[in-house]
Write a structure and sequence with these properties.
There is one protein chain. This protein is mainly α and 84 residues long. The chain has one domain. It is 68% helix and 0% strand. The longest helix has 18 residues. The chain is flat.
């Protein structure tokens, strides 16, 4: 994986956050998409208020968070198959 070895900077993170937030806000320009998003958050179990909180969560992501998650994803995964 290229991402596993790539250096990620604060500038990279800020650009990614702007793209995610911008795309999210652009997607909510119509009433139908706003309704979809509210329903989506409800169905996913976060509640309709997540629609307002989502941007704050993205803004609060730190470089340390991204690096920590990347390291956890590097670890080998184990799979168990149980058959009758």
């Amino acid at each position: 994986w290229v991402v596993q070895e790539a250096e990620i900077t604060n500038e990279d993170l800020e650009l990614a956050k702007k793209k995610i937030i911008g795309g999210y806000l652009l997607d909510r320009q119509t009433r139908s998409r706003q309704a979809f998003q509210l329903g989506f958050w409800e169905v996913m179990g976060f509640g309709y208020k997540m629609d307002q909180e989502y941007v704050k969560y993205i803004e609060n992501v730190r470089l340390e968070d991204v690096l920590r998650v990347r390291e956890s994803l590097k670890k080998a995964h184990q799979c168990v198959v149980v058959e009758p």
